[in-house]
Specification:
By secondary structure, the chain is mainly α. It has helices at 7-35, 38-50, 60-99, 105-127, 132-157.
């Protein structure tokens, strides 16, 4: 007996896979940051900014990038590395569980994503980040898709 794949089902799969990819990138970045010195990271960042990849060097996006870099080089290194690795590992684990449709992991995934949203919003307020609220909004959308998928699976299994 086949079940029809809806647009929401497809969105769920795409969103979860994107979260998995995001988690893998975060994990790799966190591990790389362990081995790169702050000076190397600063040189790479300045190369990005001076090539106008973020707009004019004095522009707002380049300014946010430079400010984030200063926070990182000024002592937030351990925080950033820990955050990236933990966030990456948790995301990858949850994505695997969701793709395998392990029912007990759905509430765990929603709770973890909810905590990430709270953290991202609080951190955005502290650092005046323009990127973290976008990640928070994406996480909220994924929570809605996970909830919808969870309710559908529960309905099918009754």
């Amino acid at each position: 007996m086949g079940t029809r794949t809806t647009l929401t089902d497809k969105l769920f799969r795409v969103a979860v896979l994107l979260k998995g990819l995001d988690g893998a990138v975060q994990l790799i970045a966190g591990v790389l940051l362990i081995f790169l010195s702050p000076n190397t990271i600063t040189r790479l960042a300045h190369a990005v900014v001076t090539r106008d990849l973020l707009g004019p060097p004095a522009g707002p996006l380049a300014g946010h990038f430079e400010e984030a870099l200063q926070h990182f080089a000024g002592g937030n290194r351990t925080f950033v590395i820990t955050y990236l690795i933990a966030h990456g590992v948790i995301k990858i684990g949850l994505v695997i569980g969701l793709m395998l449709k392990i029912m007990p992991l759905y509430p765990v995934a929603m709770a973890a994503l909810g905590l990430f949203v709270v953290f991202e919003v609080l951190r955005a307020v502290q650092t005046k980040s323009v990127v973290l609220p976008l990640f928070a909004a994406l996480d909220v959308a994924i929570i809605v898709l996970v909830l919808r998928e969870y309710l559908e699976l529960r309905r099918r299994n009754q």
